[in-house]
Design a protein that fits this description.
CATH topology of the largest domain: TIM Barrel
Strand order of the largest sheet: 2-6-20-21-22
Oligomer: single chain
Number of strands: 22
CATH class of the largest domain: Alpha Beta
Largest sheet: 5 strands, mixed
Strand content: 15-25%
Structural class: alpha/beta
Radius of gyration: 20 Å
Number of helices: 11
Length: about 375
Amino acid sequence: MSATIIRNAQLHITSEEFVDTDSLAIMDHRIVPLDPTLLEDGTAEEIDVKGLHVCPGFIDLLVNGCAGVSFVSSPNVESLESMRRWLTAHGTTTFVPTLVSGPRENTTRGIAAVAEFKEKHPTICPGIHLEGPFISQAYKGFHPSGYIRTFSPADIDFVKENKESIAYMTIAPEVVRAKNIVELLGLKVRMSIGHSSASYFETTQAFKAGITNVTHLFNGMKPPVGREPGIVGATLQNDRVYAGIIADGKHVHPSLVKLAHKLLGDRLYIVSDAQSVAGVSKLPNSIVIGGTELFCDHKRGLIDSKGAYAGTNICMMDGVKFLVNSCGFTLDEALLAATYSPAKAIGLSEVGRIEGGFIADLIIFDDEYKIQYVVQNGFVKSTSELM
């Protein structure tokens, strides 16, 4: 099978075999080191990127919607396809669609849609993110209060039946009992702590049980104080836990992003938390998501009537720029937080790094962060072709 060769690139987020090289090859949808034998039969396509940056495709673990589409409001395959097209054009080659707390039939529809979408796009979507309903009323954000509830024995059966379509669940450890957490982990269901009033002790016990992820650190959780470090304190001192941060510059102050990065290192990753307004040509005054009106405040971002934050209108490249320009990250540190770190956070083993044998999901961009090409599953397309 013929190969595609990418030459004269600044490669980022690579395994050791690609350090100090400026080229890579793609064969059979996979990344391979450049070998002279690949050029012998004359069929290889060579692309000279003339010094552009090449890194793995972005991995966004929290996407509510984009391009005018809300997965919460319309949990179907058509929504996922629309989201995929916009996300790919903006550099996100792997994404996890998110459902907030809502009626059971909405969850069932969303899971069925993701299962069908996964079958068609197995390298693009690892599953759904169920953000609730087993969360704290006190730190629910814009989740509808009426759908937030405790975990029941029937929920174990529901999760077990659908676990192949669930990438991870966000839960509050004070709401889901310890024995249920252990049971879910035994089923190989990934969980993340978020929208929670858990104490430091409750959080550390959940980490000891096997939870290794925190959803949008600093948001949707009790803030730390001197005598009660809470989720934030427990997370920042744990050496096994990954944590996502919403990187829009509104949800979390740059100084706290810097602090989290200093303590967590490559276990800190970013998410877009994008809503349907991401990618729209003109921001409306308000939108309705899952029956809740959200206001598009140009200074504060998306908020509900009580001022609770409710997502963003950014893409992952916006998050990378925020880390570099406002938080003191190097370009490689920012790209790592958008690629390999989220991959490791939910156990994705074939994406997120330029490594031999990994799926060829790549983005090629210039010094102004403008994407020129996207490589999805080995297929190279310019941004004009994707739009």
